[in-house]
Structures are given as C-alpha cells and as structure tokens.
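Before the break, one more example. Copy the sequence into your notebook; we will annotate it together after we see the structure.
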Amino acid sequence: MTAPGYRFLDVLQRFAAAGLIPAIMSSDEYREAIRADFAQLAETPEAADRFFAQSQIVSQLGHAPTTQVWAWQKLLTLLHDADHEKYLRIHKGTPFYFLATAAYVAGDFERALAFMDAAVEEDRRIRGASWRNVPSGLFFRLQPEEKNQFARQVVKQVTEVLHTHFTQVAAAGGPTLTVNDLTAKLIEPALDAAAELRSVVTALFTFLLEYSSRLTDLQLVAQAAGTAVYQPLGFAAKPQGPGGDTFDDVLRLIEDERAAGHPFHERVIHATWGIRNKTGHSLAWPLKPQPLAYSEAFLLILGASALALAHLY
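Here is what the structure looks like once it is written out:
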C-alpha cells in the first residue's frame, strides 16, 4: 500500500491511467476507500492536514479551478456522510482554504469568501492566537507580502481591486481611504470579534470583487431588450415597490441627483437607502440596469460604506 497507508491513494493510482480524477472520485471503490481511511484517521490537526495534503486535488486539478472546487466538495461530502460527528471535530482549515482559493480563481467570489471565512474559523479553533499568521488569516488581513500562503497572488489581486475602488470614491468627492484604513477600521476588529461580524467583511469583499464581472455581464447584454423579471414570476404588470416607487425610480433619482450636483454624501445615502428598500423587499425586479447605471450605483453604495468607515469607526 502506498505510504502513508491511505487506501484512497491506491484507488487513485490504479485508475490513474483512465484519466479524470472526478470520475475516480465518483466511484464506489473510492468512496469505500475514503470511508475506511477516515475511520482510521487520528483526530489531531497534524493528521488531518496530512490526510488532505495527500488528496492530489491541487496537484492534479490546479489547472481547472471549477473542477477543483467540485473535487474538494466531493471529498468533504464523503467524509461528512461517513461520520458526521468526526467530521465536525477534525481540523478542516486546509481543504476550506484550498477550496476558497480555487473558487476565487474560478470567479465564484461569494463561495470563495464563505469558505475562506470557514477556514479562519477552523484555524482559530485549533491554533489559538497564531491563526492570524496562517494562510487564511493572512488572506483576510490582506497581507500579500507574506510568503507563507498558497493564495499570495490572489491576496495581491484583492488589495489592488480595493485600492482601485477607493481611488474612484475619492475622485468622486468621497473620503480618501486606503487598504490599510480598511484593515485597521473594519477587518482587524471584525476578525477579533464574533464570527457574525466577519460576515460584514465577506459581504463587502464579495460586493467589490464581483463588480467587474457584473459590469461585463451587463455590457455584453446591453443591446438586448431583456425580459422583465416579474413576468416569469406570474405578474401581468410591473408591480410597485413600497411607497409606490420602483427600482427604475431609484435609478432615475440617482441620475437626477448627479445631474443636479447634489453633494456626494447626500447622493450615496439616498442611493443606498433606495436600492436597499427597492431590491431587498421585493423579488419583482424590473428590467436590467444599463452598465452606466450599474457603475454609478456601485460607486454610490461603496461611497456610503467608505463614508461610514471614515467617520463612524
């Protein structure tokens, strides 16, 4: 048997000539080997890290991030189903971290940040105060200069995206914020507090990182007439939001206030309040916003966040 004695490695090697790891991982033989290995696995963090390091998911699927995400989820699901209680007890920081990194590369930012947050929670639970200097902690603390992290290039990209957006806010008349300001005012306090507060950080990161992709989507379909979302939901006519306003009205308000030269701090609050109320209270969205309207709304919501960070923290 292949060192260090994992049966699932024998299965991978015997069927390697057949190619694709996903097909092997979906087989009954692989599932039974994983269950047997997991039953024998010691519950120390070191044993769990060695087990996951031998999975070959990163080495074999590093070129295919979407498939890598699937493979990590498949492996974790097999363990979860084999022994749920043991699954909860073992250290899962390693697979969560690599799954998050693959999801980021694949452009699935919401999943990436959800699993990176889960990796932080695992590392805090096992490593105590030293979690801040392990890869998951370095990611959330935006430390691209630290070499002890597989996702170092990803962290560098995240800091560059944040810097670009903060520069746009300042140019539009908002407060001047740096990535270091964000780390000191929001990220570090959130990471030291309860897990619920970290969701503020993950939500902000997701919002900022998805902007470029969402803008591209809108640009690619900008010439299409589009279909009103309310029609597939069974509405015969466009429904009205609270107070008789629709999301279209909010977009017009944003444009009218910009054209009228309203102060930046007033525009960001009006825009964020209106967007939240019209989109958060109803599934009956109107037609897609145009790319320019989306860019303006994005900037104003980010401006409201920056205003709060600059003056309330």
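Residues 215-312 form one domain. The chain has 17 helices and no strands. Try to locate both features in your own notes.
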